[in-house]
Amino acid sequence: MAKAGVLQLASTAEETATFSIDLGRLLNSGARPFYNSPAFSDITIIAPDGRQRLCHQVILAASSKRLASVLKSGDFTNARLPVQGVDSDALDSLLESCYTGECGLSLASAAAVYDAAVKLEVTGLAPAIEQFVGGGLSPPTVVPMLERALGVKAARLVEICLGFIRGRWVVTG
User: How confident is the chain (173 residues) per 10-residue block, as mean pLDDT?
Assistant: First the structure.
């Protein structure tokens, strides 16, 4: 077992100053290597399909209001927390985005990720997905997107799809 030591950093600055840093970007870039890594992990998230991801409670709580609420309710240190009611791939994408600050998305995955983001209360992600879907719809993609949105009962995405269709509805006669 390694002995704890003291990390002593000598101050060499003669003047002091205050600098602003983008803490969010710093934390995301620093957290990236810890995604699904045993280093400092203190909880295992289990997806509906049984996939397991090693996570860090502080990262999850900072990223998801729902997970923060659950984690505050008890001691989950070294626990296994099953997450049900969302798509496993979408959950995986969300967990990774907690560590990277980026969420890879396609129209094919948007509804499932949106559903997970809403259910887990990931701040800012649902509106970003709504904007992505609204900007990415086209006549060939709107019906498959509408079907996926209906499948996860994502009312806002359904409305975006229907708005797209209504805006292109042509009455002939």
Answer: 65 57 60 73 95 94 94 92 97 91 91 98 93 95 97 98 90 68
Which 3 state secondary structure label does DSSP give 133?
helix
Phi, psi of 80 (to 5 degrees): -110, 120
In the DSSP assignment, the letter for residue 122 is: B
Task: Choose the CATH number for 23-167 among 3.40.50.1950, 1.25.40.10, 1.10.260.40, 3.30.710.10.
Answer: 3.30.710.10
Identity of residue 80: R
Q: Where are the domains of the chain?
A: 23-167
Side-chain-side CA neighbours of 173 within 13 Å: the count stands at 3
Is 96:61 a contact under the CB 8 Å cutoff? no
Q: Are 95 and 76 in contact (CB under 8 A)?
A: no
